[in-house]
Amino acid sequence: MSDHLNPLSPDVLPAGIRARFVANNNGLKVHLLESGAPTSGKQTLLLLHGFPELAYSWRRIMPALADAGYHVIAPDQRGYGRTTGWSADYDGDLAPFRILNLVRDQLGLLAALGKTSVDAVIGHDFGSPVAAACALARPDVFRAVALMSAPFAGPPSWPFASDGSPAPTSATALADPGLGEALSRLDPPRKHYQWYYSTRPANADMMHCDQGLHDFLRAYYHHKSADWPANKPYPLAAWDATSLAVLPTYYVMHKDQDMPATVAPEMPSTEAITTCAWLPDAELAVYASEYGRTGFQGGLQWYRCATGGLFTDDLKTFSGRAIEVPAAFISGKSDWGTYQKPGDFEAMQSHACADLRLCELVDGAGHWVQQEQPAETIRLLLEFLGTMKP
């Protein structure tokens, strides 16, 4: 990645958000968005984005959180956007993308900013498991956690069976090729999107798709939003091929299609695009421009760590532990992400978060809850944060 970049232009940022670079003490030159004054003793919120997103994904809620009295910081995470110091080499070392190193990225960033703790770490999509790992590993630094779209079921257990086999949980199953084989035997044959994202061709498929990068992202974001009327999620019966087959094709794809071909039939109409208030074309162009420059491989390395079992291996360090700090979960009512791993939503509520103070599914939102319904997301976050004030 080029190290000769300027911060994101104020022309594309809402009023009250500024951009700069910060060396994070862990090998990265981090592109950081922030809102609110970083005055001594001021409460701080750390916002972690997912895939295929950027720090820019928090633009609709950052100023309001700052107006409520917080210093709000949102980095382009390792592998994304204008943050540099990472490799997109498919054959390179995946160790920098392991989940505990992603936690170290945030610890190093906070140290570089002169902060010993944050009042909450807030993660969306793939940022959610990183936020959960932050709270699990360093509750003294990350004093509360809000998870969005991806529930946390707790760290995986060490095997106790006499043959050493792991427990049959969704955390380990993503690294198990047996489910992939079962999906491929369905009619029509299917494949899990996380395994697809782990393959060598995935980045080139998306970068050089027939419809062009801008239209691919438009269809992808639309397909996973509440604007796509068929997003009517519900809990799945089990982590098996038959149960997973009911998921939309952006999660369980047709075996012979790549992701651009998967979402192309769901491209919204010109009228729908024109009236899309949560992602107008000028804002989508920011995503298309950034991914057009970086490609997707940096984010895809995270999926390779997940499907290869590297995230599971790291999180086994905390086997048997729950998140003890105050926790919240916010997702869209039209977001299949809440249920895509059967049992995770329930486990989060029963034992994985010992102090779950808020759990809400938002009307009129799909997967991109903080963009689709920013006002309600802000209200819920402030309600949650208010439970920790004396």
Number of helical segments?
Answer: 17
Shape: globular
Q: Any idea of the CATH topology of the largest domain?
A: Rossmann fold
Distance between the termini: 45 Å
Structural class: alpha/beta
Strand content: 5-15%
* Poorly predicted segments: 168-172
Order of helices and strands: EEEHEHEHEHHEHHHHEHHHHHEHEHH
State the major sheet.
8 strands, mixed
Helix content estimate:
25-40%
The CATH homologous superfamily of the largest domain corresponds to: Alpha/Beta hydrolase fold, catalytic domain
CATH level-1 class of the largest domain? Alpha Beta
Radius of gyration: 20 Å
Within the largest sheet, what's the order of strands? 1-2-4-3-5-6-9-10
The total number of structural domains is 2
Description:
By secondary structure, the chain is an alpha/beta fold. It starts with 17 loop residues before the first strand and ends with a helix. The relative contact order is 0.15. Helix content is 35%, strand content 13%. The strands form two sheets. The protein has an eight-stranded mixed β-sheet with strand order 1-2-4-3-5-6-9-10, sandwiched between helices.
